[in-house]
Amino acid sequence: MMHGAIENILQGVGNTPIVRLNRVTQGLAAEIYVKLEYLNPGGSHKDRLAWNLVRRAEENGLKPGGTIIEATSGNTGASLALIATVRGYKCIFVMPDKMSQEKISYLRAFGAKVVVCPTAVEAEDPRSYYQVAKRLANETPNSFYANQYHNPANPEAHYLSTGPEIWRQTNGDFDIFMAGMGTGGTLSGAGKFLREKMPNLRIVGVDPVGSLYYDFVKTGRVTKPFSYKVEGIGEDFFPTTMDLKILDDIVRVDDRECFLMTRDLTRLEGLFAGGSGGAAVAGAIKYARERNKKEKILVFLADGGIKYLSKIFNDDWMRENGFLEESPGLGTVRDVMATHKRKLVTAAPKSTVREVIDTLKREGISQLPLIEGGRLAGIVAEVDLLRHLVTGLKTLDSPVGELAEDDYATVTPDTKIELLQGVLADAKSAIVMEKDDVVGIVTKIDLIDFLARGGEAPRSSARPNV
């Protein structure tokens, strides 16, 4: 064995560098550092997860010649394909159709079979990539379903590898650990290890608009997910590998913020990261600006930009999807709210159905949010009240909280109309939140009325209530 060489490529996993950001963070009180996980052999942090998954599977009887099957956004598949090549396995990967062609081609380069499924279906739909992967695992003899969303070997990999590595590299010299929220392995595993070493460490997740996590953490309710473009983070269901209790806070970013920051990291910092890394840094900058404290933030850059050349780094694709140039557009949620100028009306879950009906009639509204202890506890609409009263399931004296619905999504006053339209296509209404406070509610008819007026609103006097 040559001096300085390693036995095989798998021994090259880990020991990725941590780099300070300098130009994209100008004007911030905080210092932001990034861990370059895209420098792993397979191009992402999923090398750590995949190697641990396969090791555990081998301990449980997986033999060379078997087939590894997984539902993946591409990165886990790439890492499993690398390991399968070295260890002697075949691979079948199931991916949603929003993933880049580079990811699909990468997997096929390793000899893997790739099955592409529709993105815009529910997680439990038999056509979803989760369900198709399960079916293939049941149908394929001598196969191993990696199941990263529910396999405890996922967070274990980061508890055993990522967390200790960060601790060795930094000696705990940082205040906040931030990462994008996908399967939850990184935050749950590395976060758990680091929290044991650093009890005062703040752990913050970054979630894309459209994912379930942000609304659930902020409101405790499961709202309507909707589609988004950034790959590798966000979910439309709750993986058991995600321990939300580890979080101290959560930040939300939209596709445009993710992609523009991804490009800035390359052009201003020389860091060729992928979209989820751009999301994590955009979230970290937003969080640092909000806190305005002298502290050190460590951000996880999960994968690299080479897999996104046809999308994020393609000007035509960025333009076609409205991400490249800032355009006047149709306005924002704040503009819609400004056309109504009526106060926000809420109720407590313990209020009776009778009291809420009186409120709806008096205020001339059709639905209202339920607030308990300063947190959103759901929404109730006149159609829900009618259904329960007609069926006799509830009476006028029943607590209205028992009728609360989750058919809503949350937005901010600065959410663009184009995104609001997508939200309201999937949800009955949009709850407007500023930080952790509910400041308004926007319905389909509110948006229709705004657009019917030609998108005109007294923007200089915009108010946060509808």
Structural commentary:
- The protein folds into three domains: 9-41 and 163-320, 3-Layer(aba) Sandwich (Rossmann fold), CATH 3.40.50.1100; 46-145, Rossmann fold, CATH 3.40.50; 333-461, CBS-domain (Roll), CATH 3.10.580.
- It contains 15 helices and 15 strands.
- The protein has helices at 46-59, 75-87, 101-109, 129-139, 153-170, 185-197, 213-219, 255-269, 275-291, 315-320, 333-338, 353-363, 382-391, 417-426, 444-452, and strands at residues 18-20, 31-36, 67-71, 90-96, 113-117, 143-145, 176-180, 202-208, 249-253, 296-301, 367-372, 375-381, 408-411, 429-434, 437-443.
- The strands form four sheets. The protein has a six-stranded mixed beta sheet with strand order 1-2-10-7-8-9, with helices on both faces. Strands 5-4-3-6 form a four-stranded parallel beta sheet, with helices on both faces.
- Helix 6 (185-197) links the parallel strand 7 (176-180) and strand 8 (202-208).
- It is globular.
Broad shape? globular
Number of structural units classed as domains:
3
Q: What is the second-level CATH architecture of the largest domain?
A: 3-Layer(aba) Sandwich
Tell me the strand order in the biggest sheet.
1-2-10-7-8-9
Supply the CATH class of the largest domain: Alpha Beta
- Overall SS class: alpha/beta
Mean pLDDT: 90
Instruction: List segments where confidence is low: pLDDT < 50 over at least 5 consecutive residues.
Output: 458-466
Q: Give the amount of beta strand, in percent.
A: 15-25%
